[in-house]
Specification:
heterodimer, A: about 325 residues, alpha+beta, six-stranded antiparallel beta barrel, six-stranded antiparallel barrel, 12 strands, globular, B: about 160 residues, mainly alpha, about 0% strand
Chain lengths: ~325, ~160
């Protein structure tokens, strides 16, 4: 070998400085990871670097757009006509159903007004387009072409024509990232349409199914049951299709039944999705009702002023429905 | 001088296009087969180019990749640093391997990279990935000879060191 070896590439042992540098960089990376895990730095950084990041996303999404356009441009004329025909029929059917539903919705609205509930059936939606970008989280994320400037906020439900897809997770100025239902870290409160059983559907590891791990053994669940959003928790409005149960089995522990469900929405093929604006309840559970119990002065006598109460408990004859009150006061 | 500038253009061009390729999605069926392009690109340059690739470059490229498609900040920086360190350490030997041995070495490096990623994600509380997740390093190793020849050819045509 005539080649003289230089310092930078020794044949066997490396120099200590290289190892030290490696340790420093690895340590730095770990510190960054911990800080990010604690404070969510990554998205803040992405938000501030959005001017660079977002064009790159659009650029990376171009091949997907191109393929889509090519398939439209070179699509068979017959195939396109067929598709058009099918869409027309679907629209006709949907319109007919809508007309039928309109009467029911109006009736429902009236009844609800009578019952004094504020929840309405009206939908406020925003159309968004999916950008084909691989965000490195297996298959659990989706990028949309709307963002903070279009009024998108984290937590908004995302649906397509067939059902719920997920919720907005992170928002950049003109793009946003959706966490799909099938993300293992996602959970959605559902109700089984046939039996009315309320439970929670989690995402699963393989990213194509939903898992319902804690159904009571005695519950009535069958293959083919439809899952709807239950509206519990307030993030997803009630009544949207979530999926269909595929398998039901007893859990390994023998304490619960475990069901697998297929998402109703077209998670892989959706090009356009709807963002719901009208969240059922803006923040978590509804506010507590004002206390409806007996008036405060009827409360059981405290140990500090028993004399004041002893005189009053006799007087109101209007409280016979609360046997606890006089009993407590007499003590 | 001009030749040198062309060389650095090619170098950074390949790095940037590796980042872009990483972002381009594949159809659902092919998704697990997508190789980790930034790692392959950095490996080539760290083996073939005298002292272009340093740990600092690997770290900053990793941060850039994290900014674009990371799940956690610093995750890919860690992986690329480890990868480049091993590649630089064994550079002299790896370079003179026959192509199939080099491919095997790349496979081992990429598998090691996946293990690192797995550890990081599991420690951060993520779920275990599906089995098809392990296909990617094999695809990367299978692509390595072609990538190597392509880059070598490009460099020979442009007469870049």
């Amino acid at each position: 070998m005539a080649r003289t070896r230089d310092e930078s590439s020794p044949l066997f042992a490396g120099n200590a400085a290289g190892t030290l540098r490696l340790i420093v960089y690895l340590g730095l990376a770990m510190v960054l990871m911990v800080l990010d895990q604690r404070n969510g730095w990554l998205w803040r950084l992405r938000f501030s670097a959005a001017a660079v990041v977002e064009p790159v996303y659009r650029l990376a999404g171009l091949p997907a757009v191109g393929i889509h356009m090519l398939s439209t441009a070179f699509g068979d004329r017959r195939q396109l006509t067929e598709q058009n025909q099918r869409l027309r029929e679907d629209l006709l059917l949907a319109n007919a159903r809508l007309n039928q539903m309109a009467a029911v919705a109006e009736q429902n609205q009236r009844l609800k007004q009578l019952l004094d509930t504020r929840r309405s059936l009206k939908l406020k939606v925003q159309l968004a387009r999916v950008i084909g970008v691989d965000l490195g989280a297996y298959r659990y994320r989706l990028t949309l072409n709307v963002g903070a400037r279009d009024g998108v906020k984290p937590g908004q439900p995302v649906i397509d024509a067939h059902g719920v897809m997920g919720q907005v997770r992170e928002v950049l100025p003109t793009t946003s990232v959706v966490m799909l239902l099938t993300d293992p870290a996602h959970a959605i409160p559902v109700v089984i349409a046939r039996s009315g059983l309320r439970t929670v559907a989690y995402g699963s590891r393989d990213g194509v199914q939903l898992t319902l791990p804690d159904i009571p053994l005695a519950a009535d669940v069958r293959v083919g049951d439809q899952l709807l959003t239950s509206g519990v928790g307030g993030r997803f409005p009630p009544g949207f299709p979530v999926g269909e149960i595929r398998t039901v089995a007893t859990a390994a522990s023998g304490m619960f039944m475990v069901a697998q469900a297929r998402p109703a929405a077209d998670l892989d093929r959706s090009d356009e999705v709807l963002l719901l604006h009208d969240q059922a309840e803006p923040d978590g559970p509804p506010t507590l009702l004002p206390s409806m119990g007996p008036p405060g002065d009827l409360a059981p006598a405290g140990p500090n002023k028993p004399a004041a109460h002893a005189g009053r408990t006799v007087a109101p004859a209007a409280a016979p429905a609360h046997p606890a009150t006089p009993g407590g006061a007499a003590r | 001088m001009n030749r040198q500038r062309l060389g650095s253009w090619l170098f950074f061009g390949t790095l940037v296009s590796a980042l872009l390729l990483m972002l381009v999605p594949l159809p659902l069926v092919l998704e697990p087969f997508k190789p980790y392009w930034p790692a392959l690109c950095l490996l080539y340059w760290s083996l073939e180019s005298e002292n272009r690739v340093t740990l600092g470059l690997a770290f900053s490229m990793g941060i850039g990749a994290d900014l674009l498609n990371g799940v956690m900040l610093g995750e890919q920086a860690l992986r690329l640093c480890a990868l480049v360190f091993i590649a630089l350490r064994f550079r002299s030997r790896l370079r003179f391997f026959p192509m199939w041995q080099q491919s095997l070495a790349v496979l081992v490096l990429l598998l090691n990279d996946r293990f690192l990623l797995l550890i990081v994600r599991v420690v951060a509380g993520g779920a275990l990935p599906p089995g098809s997740w392990w296909i990617s390093p094999f695809v990367g190793a299978a692509l390595w000879p072609f990538l190597f020849l392509l880059f070598d050819d490009l460099r020979a045509r442009l007469r870049i060191q």
